[in-house]
Amino acid sequence: MKKSLQIGGAYVGIIVGAGFASGQEIILYFTSFGLKGVYGALLAAFGFSLVGMCIAQVSSRLRTTSHKDLIYQISGNFMGFLLDLLLSIFLFGVAVIMFAGAGATFQQMFALPVWLGSISMVVLTVATVMLNVKSIINIIALATPYLLTIVSIIAIYAIATMDLTFAEQAVIAQQAQISTNSWWLTALLYMSFNIGVSFSLLTVMCGAVRNDKVAGIGGIIGGILLGALILLIHLSLLAKMNIVIGLDIPMLALANEIHPIVGLLMTLSLLGMIYNTAVGMLYSFIVRFIEPSKSHFKRAAIVIGGLGFLASLVGFTTLVSKLYAVMGYVGLVLIIFIVGAWIRGIKKSDG
């Protein structure tokens, strides 16, 4: 059970980046639909659990060491090549975005130069990537209970002190809607995008787990925790929509409203989420090309980390962020292939 909890915690840690934890993504994809966002959160939780279980079990059966091992087996050579290419570009791109995000956060919090914040995150990320995969899972998983605690405190406070009814707040929340899609389609697209984000590290993590049942339970636990976080953040923001509408980091605003110390704890949580995502993306990107057991793995981590730092300074993030839209559809294709492979009961002996 301990291993399943670690996998579940790490699954959450990879997905809950700064956009999720800040509340910005939750407003766009869930809260803007008012109380229907609750249904969206439940649907996303079901999807995260089901697909997380499938990825975890298939990866465990195939003993995957990178996403490449899995993709080519479940989707064939041509589609495998396309998905592998897109995922690899995306992994590096998201790592770069996290480095840039750390720089911006350091500048906003401590009035430090952007480059200093970015390079600090790069150094910390590269140092973590040099550890073995079990240590990386443990580190990423540690942040999950901390974030759940902070978000629960904010949710209780927000609901206890709300000024308007949920129905009145829902009218205000509709101003944040970015598309005409229904609540259920928006929730599914959000889930599929994040499956694309977490897919590579999940395959690496669960490929190292010998018992596919343990791995599968980890995927289910992670999905349930993700659903709980979405629901808590959604209710927190909906309760205070008249205050947080239009803010860049709404959850931080609510945390500061409780007490500056809670605000500081939330800020540390945001930095922790940036770090988690950066580690997950950079490690998955490097192991796609170089096995961790190779002598030049650590040198490669330093070089690629350095390139990521340079890219974060030259506006590369603007270009890469356009991949986010593509990634939602890549995630949907991955979901179809992985669930199909799970239903077929694909195993190591298959290829």
Name the descriptors.
single chain; 0% strand; mainly alpha; 351 residues
Short recap of the structure:
This is Membrane protein. By secondary structure, this protein is mostly helical.
Explain this structure to me?
- The chain has about 350 residues and is mostly helical.
- It has a single domain, classed as Amino acid/polyamine transporter I.
- The protein is built from 17 helices and no strands.
- It has helices at about 1-15, 20, 25-30, 35-60, 65-75, 75-110, 115-130, 135-160, 165-175, 185-205, 210-240, 240-245, 250-260, 260-290, 295-315, 315-320, 325-345.
- α5 (about 65-75) packs antiparallel against α6 (about 75-110) and α8 packs across α13 (about 250-260).
- The protein is globular, with a radius of gyration of 19 Å.
- It starts with a helix and ends in a 7-residue tail after the last helix.
- The relative contact order is 0.23.
- The mean pLDDT is about 90.
